[in-house]
Each structure stands twice: as structure tokens, then as C-alpha cells.
Design a protein that fits this description.
Largest sheet of chain B: 7 strands, mixed
Structural class of chain B: alpha/beta
Strand content of chain A: under 5%
CATH topology of the largest domain in chain B: Rossmann fold
CATH topology of the largest domain in chain A: Serine Threonine Protein Phosphatase 5, Tetratricopeptide repeat
Oligomer: heterodimer
CATH superfamily of the largest domain in chain B: P-loop containing nucleotide triphosphate hydrolases
Shape of chain B: globular
Helix content of chain B: 40-55%
Mean pLDDT of chain B: 78
CATH class of the largest domain in chain B: Alpha Beta
Number of strands of chain B: 7
Low-confidence stretches of chain B: 142-148
Mean pLDDT of chain A: 87
CATH superfamily of the largest domain in chain A: Tetratricopeptide repeat domain
Largest interface: A-B, 32 and 38 residues
Number of domains of chain B: 3
Number of domains of chain A: 3
Structural class of chain A: mainly alpha
Distance between the termini of chain A: 42 Å
CATH architecture of the largest domain in chain B: 3-Layer(aba) Sandwich
CATH class of the largest domain in chain A: Mainly Alpha
Order of helices and strands of chain B: HEEHHEHEHHEHHEEHHHHHH
């Protein structure tokens, strides 16, 4: 059975073990494995990048950036180093530095689709949907069948109010990826933007089944459940209003409150009631008559 | 124990896969039995029914079409005695104990891990009656993303092959899987005939904590310690937590002894001081398990976890 004699673990095996541990979500052990790897090969950037990835997973972003500093000191053209750096800065929402790292990574390797995906995500968060559309298009030109990218594409299209295209992209995404919770989150948000509360709920159900331990996923799921109550849904901005810009909505609200004050007060009260009632229903639906668990710090 | 039994026990052994030597290594013989396992009566009952009695009364079970052998999966927070329980099973049925940590068999060469896994199962068959204990079973199905990788899938397939093979021509081989994270397991592993018996190994109850603490304090100057009160004030502490608690308290007493130059007995205050900074390590596990049980449990497999959480008012 033995194929190796005693001795240090070969680097290939270190990398494989590290990848598996990350895949299994055992980040502390992955950190230890990367540390051992670094002790054996301090002259190469790979173990530093592995450490950076482990730190990203344990949400120690400063340390992750420090590791990429080391990796890039050893090899300034190490594209993995730039990717890790971009991911770390993305996680702390340091957009200028994230963009700089992503651009540098793309300069070295213009076929690194994930960097385009990060840029698309950033622009989408900032409401720059056209730019986001362009970036995710670039990512999909390189990795045409990536379900995660297709799901983000569907979300961006929904934000651009191209609902039919968004639906089509969502279908393609589902054909390619039904294992990643993030894919379902994007598809849920896309459906929500299209005003399709039922599909949004289905997508969020899938996301939470895959990753119930993630707080964001739980929150999104509960909100999707809440929006399935019609008496709450009618108060959340109907699709019709979404075509307006925020300042237009605020202006309309001010004018309406001046002209129809009692009606507006009534609407606010009804909204609050529907919010509390639907939230209570969702709580009972999920936790029964028990109290919700305490939130945990990481 | 009669002579015949004594002789058989002498031949029993514990075999482990040595990560560095990449080979099977024999260690000690299993000496613990169910009498050494405090509490967990429900689990013991289920194990007796599935594992021990079919071996002791094969005719009776054969009449119902049942053969000795099979598999079960122990899950629960870390440090609560899953490995100890598996060893006790081996001791209870006078079987050899093969302990496999999946991480240890991973090989960088294509097919190497599968080859190692097959070697372990072959060894188990050769040593029958044998308990094959697969620790960290989640390592096989630990990631849905990882499972897309061909080599990971191969290892799962190999394990499935070994488990299914068991049913067809390997009697008296008992497979016990253990995992802290059953939700990561590949669903194929949980089909009937594989690891379909899920047993929840809970943290020790007050009585058991009392026993564990007495065992841990044995041989130490701890006459003044109120073990009963200590057991009361350590709900949800795992066996490993209790061991650490005693170790920390002992250190405090030792510090005092160093300062005074005399033996200082352990006192309740030592434990109180330690308890101020230490909480049950199982709490994190329950928080995660609750999320899986609430949101991701389509077959009601983790209902026991929710019941336990409710009973012990864990928030």
C-alpha cells in the first residue's frame, strides 16, 4: 500500500490537502496546513497565496493582504497574488484598492474571468449597471458556462430592467450550477427585482438549504418569505415604481404627503402593521413558537 | 471472562493507518466496553440491537433475515466521546478495532487514496470480526464544490463500493462512521445499507459529568471540591471541555503550591475562576447544527438535535 517513504510531505500533496480542507470548510486546519507549506517552501509565492485564501475565509483580511504583499514581493507578476489581494480588498469594500489589484491581475492575465466577475459585482453594488454588464460579459466570454457568473448576469440584467433576458440567463445559470449558494442568492435577487416573489422564495430556499449557517443567506431567506405575504408585498415598492430614480420617489412622496396627509399617515401605519404581522408569521413558520436564536459573532 | 474469551481478546488489536509511514500500524488492543461509557443509553441500546446481538444470537436474527455486520453513523459536537464509544463497541463484541482517519489516507497520486482505502477494507475483512471506525467521515463529502473534482468523487465511489461490497460478502465487519458535521456528507453515503443509521452523541448530562469529573480528579488533591456542584455548573460541557477545565484548575493550584512551597489542594474557587473565562465548546456546534436542523433538514434527520436544544434551552 505504501508508495512513499517517510519524509517531508511533497508540495503537491500539501496543495491538495490545503484545497480539500478549504473545500470542507475547515479553515483553521487549512491555515495550519498552509503554515507548514510555507515553512517548507518560503521562497515561492504559492504558500503565501494559500495563507491569504485561508485568512480570507477566516475573515482576517489585513493578514490576507499582508500575505499577498509577501507573495507579490517574491513575484510581482504572480496573478494568484493579485487575485487574492482583489478578493481581500473586495471583502473589506476598499473599492479603489480592489480595482487597482484587479486591473493589475488582468494586465498580467487578461483571461482571469474571476477578476472581471469581481469588478462586475463592484459596479453592480454601486448601481453602475452598464459597467457591471460589460464586466460580467467579459467574464462570460472567457468562462461561458459558469453558473455563478450567469446568475450575476441575470441579476444585472434584472437591474437593467431587461426582464426577459434576465429570466433566460437565470435558466442557463441553473442548468450549469445548482450547488453554489451564492448562485441561488443572485437568482433570488434577480427574481425579486423582476417582481417575481414566488421564484425569489424558491431560489432563497435553495440557497439556505445549501448554506444555512450563513447569516446573510438566512436574512435574505426570511425576507423572501415575508414578501410572499400579499399584505406586505403590496407595500414593498411595486415593480411600477422601480422605474423611477430615488430622488423622483422622494419628491413624489413629499408632494403626496403635502396634498394627502391623512392618507399618507394611514399608509405608513398600514405598512408598519403589515411589516410586523408578516415578520411574526415568518418567525412562527421557521422557528415555531420558540424565540429566535441569538446572533453569533464570528 | 472465561479462558476462551480471554484468549480471543489477546488476539484482538487496534490498527491505524499511519500518515507518515503510509501503512497500517497496529497499536493497542481495545479494552473499554459499554460499562466504561457513562450515559448514552439510547445509543447503546441501538448498537446492541444492530451490532452486538446479531453476533451473539445469529440464529434468532437469521430467522428475521438479519445478518451480523452493518454500519452506523455517530454525529455530535466534538469531544463528546464518539471515538470512545466506537472503541467500546469493539470491546463489547470482542472484535479488532480498525481506526481510519480519512485525511491520513489521502495521497497525491491518482488512485492512491482509493488504493489505500481499499487496503483498509481488505484488512478489516481479513480481521473479522472487526469494527472499522472511520473518523472524520465528512472529509469525504465535505464540500459540494469540492465534489465536482473528479478525484474526490472517485474516493466517495470507492467507499460506496466497499460499503456495498460489505453487504454482499463480508459478514462480521462493522462499520462505524463519525463526524462532527453530518450535513456535509454526500447523500449517497446515507442511503439504506450504507450509513443510514444516524445516532446523535450528545454532550454528557449532569450525572455523566459528575462521573467524568470524578475520574479526572482521581489521584489529585481534590477532597474539598464539590464535584456535584461543579457538574451542575457545567451544562453542555463536553468530555474534552471537562478535561481542560480540570487541567486549568490544577494549574492554578500548582501555581499556589509553587508560591507557598507546600502541596495546595484543588478548591472550588479554582474552578470558579476557570469557569469565568471558559464556556462550553459545544455551543458553536449547536449554533451551526440548529441552522442545519431548522433550514436544511428536509428528511427530519436532525430532529433529535432540535429536541436537545429545546430541552436544554440553548440559545
Amino acid at each position: 500500500m505504501s508508495e512513499q517513504t517517510n519524509g517531508p510531505v511533497p508540495p503537491g500533496l500539501r496543495a491538495e490537502r490545503f484545497e480539500r480542507l478549504i473545500g470542507w470548510g475547515r479553515y483553521k486546519e487549512a491555515l495550519a496546513e498552509a503554515g507548514d507549506w510555507l515553512r517548507e517552501e518560503p521562497e515561492t509565492p504559492e504558500p503565501y497565496n494559500a495563507l491569504a485564501l485561508a485568512y480570507i475565509h477566516t475573515e482576517e483580511y489585513d493578514r490576507a493582504v499582508t500575505c499577498t504583499d509577501q507573495a507579490l514581493r517574491l513575484n510581482p507578476d504572480d496573478e494568484d497574488g493579485w487575485l487574492m489581494r482583489a478578493v481581500a480588498y473586495y471583502s473589506v469594500q476598499d473599492w479603489p484598492k480592489m480595482q487597482e489589484a484587479a486591473q493589475e491581475g488582468l494586465r498580467i492575465n487578461p483571461y482571469r474571468a474571476h477578476l472581471y466577475y469581481l469588478l462586475a459585482n463592484m459596479h453592480n453594488k454601486h448601481g453602475k449597471f452598464e459597467q457591471a454588464h460589460q464586466n460580467i460579459g467579459q467574464a462570460l466570454e472567457i468562462d461561458t458556462q459558469n453558473g455563478l457568473y450567469l446568475a450575476l448576469y441575470s441579476y444585472i440584467l434584472a437591474n437593467l430592467r431587461r426582464f426577459d433576458d434576465s429570466r433566460a440567463a437565470a435558466e442557463t445559470a441553473l442548468r450549469n450550477d445548482v450547488e453554489r449558494p451564492q448562485t441561488f442568492l443572485y437568482l433570488g435577487w434577480a427574481a425579486d427585482r423582476r417582481g417575481d416573489a414566488k421564484t425569489a422564495k424558491t431560489m432563497m430556499e435553495q440557497a439556505i438549504r445549501l448554506n444555512p449557517d450563513d447569516e446573510q443567506t438566512r436574512t435574505e431567506y426570511m425576507e423572501a418569505l415575508q414578501k410572499n405575504y400579499w399584505f406586505y408585498r403590496i407595500f414593498t415598492l411595486p415593480v411600477f415604481f422601480r422605474r423611477f430614480k430615488p430622488w423622483q420617489l422622494v419628491l413624489t412622496w413629499i408632494i403626496a404627503s403635502i396634498l394627502f396627509r391623512p392618507l399618507i399617515i394611514l399608509l405608513v401605519i398600514l405598512y408598519m402593521l403589515s411589516f410586523m404581522l408578516s415578520k411574526a408569521f415568518v418567525h412562527v413558520q421557521v422557528y415555531g413558537w420558540r424565540r429566535a436564536p441569538k446572533r453569533r459573532g464570528k | 471472562m472465561d479462558d476462551d474469551k480471554e484468549q480471543r481478546r489477546k488476539n484482538l488489536k487496534v490498527i491505524q493507518f499511519d500518515k507518515n509511514a503510509e501503512d497500517l500500524v497496529e497499536s493497542e488492543k481495545p479494552t473499554v466496553t459499554f460499562d466504561d461509557v457513562g450515559g448514552l443509553e439510547e445509543i447503546k441500546k441501538k448498537i446492541r440491537m444492530n451490532f452486538i446481538l446479531p453476533l451473539k444470537q445469529p440464529e434468532l436474527f437469521a430467522a428475521y433475515g438479519r445478518k451480523a455486520g452493518g454500519s452506523l453513523l455517530l454525529y455530535g459536537p466534538p469531544g463528546c466521546g464518539k471515538t470512545f464509544l466506537a472503541r467500546a463497541v469493539a470491546g463489547e463484541i470482542d472484535a479488532s478495532f480498525l481506526h481510519l482517519e480519512l485525511q491520513a489516507i489521502l495521497s497525491m497520486y491518482t488512485g492512491g487514496s482509493e488504493h489505500n482505502l481499499h487496503g483498509i477494507f481488505e484488512k478489516a475483512r481479513a480481521e473479522a470480526p472487526c469494527v472499522l471506525f472511520i473518523d472524520e467521515l465528512d472529509a469525504l463529502g465535505g464540500s459540494r464544490h469540492g465534489m465536482r473534482q473528479h478525484h474526490d468523487r472517485m474516493l466517495v465511489n470507492q467507499l460506496l463500493l466497499e460499503l456495498d461490497g460489505l453487504e454482499s460478502f463480508n459478514e462480521n465487519v462493522f462499520i462505524i462512521g463519525a463526524t462532527n458535521t453530518p450535513w456535509y456528507l454526500d447523500s449517497a453515503l446515507r442511503r439504506p445499507g450504507r450509513f443510514n443509521n444516524l445516532l446523535f452523541v450528545t454532550p454528557p448530562e449532569e450525572e455523566e459529568r459528575d462521573t467524568i469529573l470524578k475520574l479526572k480528579l482521581a489521584g489529585k488533591p481534590a477532597d474539598g471540591v464539590s464535584v456535584r456542584k461543579l457538574a451542575e455548573s457545567t451544562p453542555l460541557f463536553s468530555g474534552a471541555d471537562l478535561e481542560q477545565l480540570v487541567r486549568d484548575a490544577t494549574e492554578l493550584a500548582l501555581e499556589r503550591a509553587m508560591e507557598t512551597g507546600e502541596i495546595q489542594p484543588l478548591a472550588d474557587t479554582d474552578f470558579r475562576r476557570v469557569l469565568k473565562s471558559r464556556q462550553a465548546s459545544t455551543l458553536d456546534w449547536f449554533a451551526t447544527a440548529r441552522n442545519y436542523a431548522t433550514f436544511s433538514d428536509t428528511n427530519g434527520e436532525y430532529a433529535q438535535v432540535l429536541e436537545f436544544i429545546k430541552k436544554h434551552k440553548i440559545r
